[in-house]
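Side project, low priority. Logging it here so it doesn't get lost.
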Amino acid sequence: MKDAAEYLAQLKASIVMTPQIIHWTAVREEDQGDAGLFRYKLVLRDGGLIELFELFKIVQKSVMVAKYSFHWQDASGGLRARWDNAPHHPEMATHPHHVHEGSEANVLPHTSITVQEVLGIISAGAVAEKDS
């Protein structure tokens, strides 16, 4: 990865190429050479919503993420999952990385996750729901 602008362009291409996303908005986006951040809101075909936030730096052509939160909710506003690295669950073996699944109170260990991985999970979840 050359710089923050290249990373942001790659992320936006991934969003556009995800068929379950029908609309997206850049709420905030900063490209400061080797550092940046983004906050995107994505509307899903099933009426769900995804909010993506990441603060990152490019170090030796690799993306180093300092903070992230990827929030996925269903059409009625219920939490499906939120992956984040806020340091408020030190009891987790994967601290600070964790996921809230189905409710804020259901916090599980989870390794660090990328936007592309989240988009893949959401795509698989949308397909699984459609098939049921």
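Brief comment: Confidence is low (pLDDT under 50) at residues 127-132.
Revisit when time allows.
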